[in-house]
Amino acid sequence: MSDIEIAQKATMLPIMDLAEQKLGVDRQHLDPYGHYKAKLCLDYVNSLGDKPDGKLILVTAISPTPAGEGKTTTTVGLGDALNRIGKKAVMCLREPSLGPCFGVKGGAAGGGYAQVVPMEDINLHFTGDFHAIGVAHNLLAALIDNHITQGNPLHIDPRRIQWKRVVDMNDRALRKVVIGMGGPGNGYVREDGYDIVVASEVMAILCLATDLKDLKERLGRIVIGYKADGKTPIYARDLKAHGAMAALLKDAIKPNLVQTLENNIAIIHGGPFANIAHGCNTVTATKTALKLADYVVTEAGFGADLGAEKFLDIKCRMAGLNPAAVVLVATVRALKFHGGVKKEDLNQENLAALEQGLANLERHVHNIREHYGLPCVVSINHFTFDTDAEIALLQKKCQELGVQAVVAKHWAQGGQGAEELARVVSGIVDNQPGKHSFVYGEDLSLWQKIEAIATKIYGAGAVTADPKVKSQLAAWNDEYGHYPICMAKTQMSFSTDPNAKGAPTGHTVHIREVRLANGAGFIVAIAGDMMTMPGLPKVPAAEHIDIDDNGRITGLF
Amino acid sequence: MSDIEIAQKATMLPIMDLAEQKLGVDRQHLDPYGHYKAKLCLDYVNSLGDKPDGKLILVTAISPTPAGEGKTTTTVGLGDALNRIGKKAVMCLREPSLGPCFGVKGGAAGGGYAQVVPMEDINLHFTGDFHAIGVAHNLLAALIDNHITQGNPLHIDPRRIQWKRVVDMNDRALRKVVIGMGGPGNGYVREDGYDIVVASEVMAILCLATDLKDLKERLGRIVIGYKADGKTPIYARDLKAHGAMAALLKDAIKPNLVQTLENNIAIIHGGPFANIAHGCNTVTATKTALKLADYVVTEAGFGADLGAEKFLDIKCRMAGLNPAAVVLVATVRALKFHGGVKKEDLNQENLAALEQGLANLERHVHNIREHYGLPCVVSINHFTFDTDAEIALLQKKCQELGVQAVVAKHWAQGGQGAEELARVVSGIVDNQPGKHSFVYGEDLSLWQKIEAIATKIYGAGAVTADPKVKSQLAAWNDEYGHYPICMAKTQMSFSTDPNAKGAPTGHTVHIREVRLANGAGFIVAIAGDMMTMPGLPKVPAAEHIDIDDNGRITGLF
Known about the structure:
19 helices; Domain 2, N(10)-formyltetrahydrofolate synthetase; Formyltetrahydrofolate synthetase, domain 3; 557 residues; alpha/beta; homodimer
């Protein structure tokens, strides 16, 4: 059965009942969106401050490969399994982006028997959060061009506007556009471009904001561009945009409740890119979940070098979160890919390649334990073609590393297939929870922070940048030196070369560009070409998506 | 008190309770969106087919002026008043567009004590319908450019693509753009443009579709452009876009229930432009309301020459609706404006100007009775500065025309202020309901239909067009000759000159361009420049919109 067929066969319970039954949340604190989605009211969220926090478990992965790893399914499977073994657990996931749904990647509501439902709603508009983010972003863009057209009293340099427009669609034709064509009535001609909504700084802001006040302040301090001197920033608050932007986000800031196939609560909220943004769900959702459950399982984007690093150095630092353990997802197939096997040969047993590919896992395990100071469990996301010999080798190697590796079969079996994983993980967080450290201190210079990430986490031998980039960082040190770094590099490798599989070492990380995300409160350091607007493939997934006369959707995956 | 202050003081009742209490709709047939908005499930809507229809009352207006007329407030006030005098009435309104909220015009949820609530939600994202329409539209646009980039097997002529992109924002810089810049990886460079979401053909389609099947068929037959011969159309279904577009609209097609300040049910659903589209709420909403209530009060955009004409000749014809009466909204101020008074002098009594301006009202009354064959009641939307002499003159003149004119004070007094209007209107529809006729027969040629509208309704002496336009219409006659005409002209005058107030006659209507809206099922005839993407003013309303730490919104109007 396809994911959507499994999802449509689920017996969902009314979310208002489920929230009361599972988490003790009275229905008056919920805004329903249909019968199976709801938003938690902010008053209630804010009222939870004094309750003790549950344990936070991060699910991350080895460096991604085309073979697929399964962070979301593992997060859902582990959450369901924890509930099965009698623990009160909630999952915190990211919201899917519409663009990839119509492109290659498909949706992001888990898969197999480890899914969140209603799958169609979650993958399509959900509760409208991304639409609200897109409109808030584009309102600011419209106000910028209108300001210039109306006489430009702020002296915005039209050549130095860095605030692009966004759309929640894979639309490569919009990457670079020229706007304001058609004569004086349409304003001034200038170059512009579109990003996908998940790449918007408004998304990062919504995910990091602690409350409405913080949200509005962050929106107000967005730097939209500069004056002609190239140095004097223009803020969104200079355009009086932040009040209306925050008003547009009044519901988007409220965490969304849904359920898994096994009727456990998942909070799905926010979904920033994991390259030019920090790639985790909202601080509001995570903090709320920690008040409502004893165990909170959450995920971070891409591999641990990007997702876990940013989760810890950006999100946990800003929000004061203390994760207790990290689950590192790996598959035999992906490890073989890291060991040099081609995608089409991954279903063949290959112990030599597996052993070679283990270098990637080993580096991630090392980073998690040594640099982040957290206990680590390897979750082997089981695939049908995995052989006993491969699994045995993988477990033996993990044992040599002193890390527990558990085979998890949640994709095929639901929570039941991840019960051992749940026992191992809960055993660790109950008995030897970690105390995480940061990869870099707040007081290092911006350049030193970049160096720390590249050398410690990526294993780089050198970090380089053009003098222009270095002087820009130096210029920012006074005012923004306390900001963490948000590294934008390929997720496919520890290095900046997506083809360097395994655990490359001694490589050079070249920082091509740096950007100030002043509303989000971090500096984006870009190593390599970052795609912030995907394209559609030759046969887009959209061609297969359909709805019948009774409203049943097919072809969504 | 401002509109938003009045709205925020309202005592709203839970919409699920209200729908049951007022209309007998069981909560199982509703999808809640928060506690005060809900969508009617399609299964339920479809199950109502056998119930008898209530009476349909159209609220329209004299030709709009900057003085304001008040169609939405009158629709709400009349609906509340009908309920007050013991009639079971539901209002059918259009959804507001976000763009104008941040620009000059503000929201569209009524005003004073004749409002629908929750006002902030209705004016901002509401239930996400417009976002869904925007994404469905932009998905098709992305598929078009992707198709060309991937080799263009359909041979779409990039110079002849008529499917633009949309955004729900007043953003003049996007009216004309160049896309696909930046090299081969970003596709082919071509000219494009953005319309505001309400101008999308997807909006018109959603508003005219009778069910999901019809929706999908209409989406599939959208003409996105032509092959190099300039004649062979490319349809959305050729790009396999319609299934995914319909899936994106699965919730948008469901009518939205909210309440008035007086806790009566209003259905707010759809909101197409009244110039290049037909300017009324959805067929689904109107038909559902007719099954649920004895009286349905609905509105159509702009003045009766555009709104009422399209309501009758497009919407009622396609959907088989039979309105029983028309309420024509007029204000003393607007009539004085039509009589030549400047905006700043409208608060001064001026009987001569009022009498002169009455020509506009007289023409609309004449059209409604003679050309549409419907009984008409004039609703004088009362303003504080109206003098007794002015009101008396207006009523006397209406009496001479044989039309009842009732002073309505719903803006200041709510439904109570429109009780007399409610008694007069219900008396007419109960005792002498109209049987409407069309302005033109379906079998006329497309050009003859345009002539019929221009000469009968606009009072034109001549209708002209370039040979190119006429030959285009002639070429369409075979396949699309049965389509109605959707006239796009200025709303400010019966003529195509916005400055020709009153009731111009003998003027020439020049058709500049014609467009095939094959999904909507009409031919757009454009007389004059039509703005399908508004701009923001020097001080946009957005600058005053704010939200406080507790989530209370201010500055929205």
